[in-house]
Amino acid sequence: MSTSRDQIFGNIRLGLKRGPLEGEALEKVKHRLAYHPSSTTPARSDLPQEQQVELFKSMATEAAAELIELDSSSQLPQAVAGFAKKESLKQLVSATADELMQLDWSETGDCKLLHREGKPGDIASLTGSFAGIAETGTLMLLSGPQSPTTLNFLADIHMVLLHESSIVGPYEAAWQKLREQGDSMPRTVNMITGPSRSADIEQKLQMGAHGPKRLVIFLAKD
Amino acid sequence: MQINSPKFKESSRIALEDANLQKALGNLRDGFPVKRANAVDRMPEFDKLRDEGRDLKDHIIANLDFYLEQFETNVTKNGGHVHWARDSDDANKAILEICRKSGAKTVTKGKSMVSEEINLNDYLEENGIQPVETDLGEYILQLRKDHPSHIIAPAIHLNLDDVSDIFHEKHGRPRTDDPAELMQEAREMLRKQFVAADVGITGANFCVAETGSTIIVTNEGNGDLTQTLPKVHVVITTIDKIVPTLEDMSLFLRLLARSATGQEFTVYNTLSTGPRREDDVDGPEEYHVVLLDNGRSEMIGTQFQEMLRCIRCSACMNHCPVYGSVGGHAYGWVYPGPMGSVLTPKLIGIDKAGHLPNASTFCGKCESVCPVRIPLPKMMRHWREREFEKHLSPKGFRFGICAWAFFAKRPALYRWLARASSLTLKLIGGKKNRIRSLPLKNGWTLWRDLPAPQGRTFMDQWKKQQSSK
């Protein structure tokens, strides 16, 4: 008895009127996977880096993300402490990414800083980010031991550090950046554009469905 | 899902008289098409992207076996498992086995139309496992023991009152008609479920051959919690969701968000590749992809091959005057609207779904908004031909078509008859030029007047115009 797999492949090849690919045809598709050509990338994000940053800001804001601009990432602890005070946050769960751990977190006021994965009931979380994509104001976050995915979804408020230098134009540039890292694909790649929402009740948009109700991006110039 | 497609006519009549449904459908007609148009206006390259999307899909189908093999190899290389399922039964059994091995009692589910196609929820329940839908719309429907009527806005047939009622009944909290409070309620109720679940099941919008990744596209974040918190992540998807590379996926993501909800980009686009890595502190320990065929491979090399391009954006149904009038449930199965009218006959048989390809005015709006340019009206016509060939159409219809064919093959007679009927109808129309009732054709005149012909046939007018040149 042939397996489901054999039957599916048999059907596909029957429909295509050929056996398994070979020769030139095989080389052609292998080439596509190896060189991953891009389709047309929208002209909108084909800009000098400075303007890409501006585009990122306007698109992210349009998607209801909140932006806090910093001259340097060294100002992040202070900015986070200020935000925590304003929002009366008693606790903040943070990723342990190097870009966060190398900062001085000694002065966070009443807000207690924890380093662990996200858990139900968390009010606020803080993570780094891998890239910002100007085209649609999208953040790209990679999972790893120092950046657990649960931090991106369980808290009511998700705070993210993004360096201006990490902002690229289209999605394709972010994939290129990921490939240049050399490692294989992380377990999870999150592309996040604004906070969680749903329009499932009468097609009227409501913010804060299952993911964070607020997405706060700390955008650092360095 | 139970098949009710043979009852399309009856269901449509009921739908048209259902005031609540008509109110709900009004939200659809005024919403999605406008949002899509605005998003398309902001992307000058959109039509070019559609051409590229069409061509890329054709390339993928022409090399589907190769890309599927690559996908399987890369999923396995990353520590995941691929399960091939020829039909619903195969897929359900594979998923049940995974659940049993992990000792699962409850499973959370992200939104998946494929899971509706295989009737997964009923199957799991029959086998003692409780599925919990987590997409807000799907959650509402599960509480109501209802089914989706739209592929991306599953509860579009309901109004605020319906949601207030069912939440009040099932959650035992004071009744509220504030949508924000209702959503907060669902958020709180489902948090417990996300944590308690042993297995999380999601669909996939695309499967990337190059990396062995699957991607889900959601606005709520429920799919992410579904696949991140439990020990096991199961992806149930179909063989036509394959794309070669991340770049290729990006093209389809651009087309999908704009065509579906008119968003610039959906909030969460999440790629999953294998189970959690060695030092990870969260994420599932197992990652399974169930790849379902269910008749799709048989569409290759046939008149219906182009249907495999579909990326399930819902633009066709959002713009369809028939869908907009009767809603999704009237179609009687999982996939409604124009894409359903082409796909459903293939999946459940033309003998059961014969009404669907006939439920079209052939206005062509669906094809004109399709992001991968699927010739939907053409394929509905192919189904009508097959239905006729198989002698499945009603006697009166067959008689009419045969009678028409008799005259059409005799042009002189045809013209004479056309002239006579045109004149007769003009006379019946009288001064008002409208016909209030017509024997044998009261399906039309029951609901509105038929505008009377002007008395001269097209051929007569054409001849006159040519001679006066």
Please, could you describe this protein's structure?
The complex is a heterodimer of chains A (222) and B (469). Chain A has 222 residues and is an alpha/beta fold. Chain A has 2 domains: 8-37, no CATH class; 46-220, NagB/RpiA/CoA transferase-like (Rossmann fold, 3-Layer(aba) Sandwich). Chain A has helices at residues 4-16, 23-35, 49-62, 76-86, 98-101, 171-180; strands spanning 66-70, 91-94, 112-115, 124-127, 131-133, 138-142, 157-163, 167-168, 188-192, 197-198, 206-207, 214-220. Chain B has 469 residues and is α/β, with parallel strands linked by helices. Chain B has 3 domains: 1-39 and 314-393, no CATH class; 43-297, Rossmann fold, CATH 3.40.50.10420; 411-467, no CATH class. Helix content of chain B is 52%, strand content 11%. Chain B contains 22 helices and 12 strands. In chain B, the strands form 3 sheets. Chain B has a 6-stranded parallel beta sheet, with helices on both faces. Chain B has a 4-stranded mixed beta sheet with strand order 8-5-6-9. A two-stranded antiparallel ribbon of chain B has the order 11-12. In chain B, helix 9 packs across helix 10 (179-196) and helix 15 (337-348) runs parallel beside helix 18 (376-389). The chains are: A alpha/beta (222), B alpha/beta (469). Chains A and B meet through helix 1, helix 2, helix 6, strand 9 and strand 10 of A and helix 2, helix 3, helix 4, helix 8 and helix 10 of B. Strand 9 (188-192) of chain A pairs antiparallel with strand 9 of chain B, so a sheet runs across the interface.
Spatial ordering of strands, largest sheet of chain B: 1-10-7-4-2-3
Structural class of chain A: alpha/beta
For this structure, what is the CATH homologous superfamily of the largest domain in chain A?
NagB/RpiA/CoA transferase-like
Estimate the helix proportion of chain B, in percent: 40-55%
- Number of domains as seen in the coordinates of chain A: 2
Largest sheet of chain A: 6 strands, parallel
| Helix fraction of chain A by DSSP (H/I, runs of at least 4) | 25-40%
CATH architecture of the largest domain in chain B: 3-Layer(aba) Sandwich
Q: Indicate the proportion of strand residues of chain A.
A: 15-25%
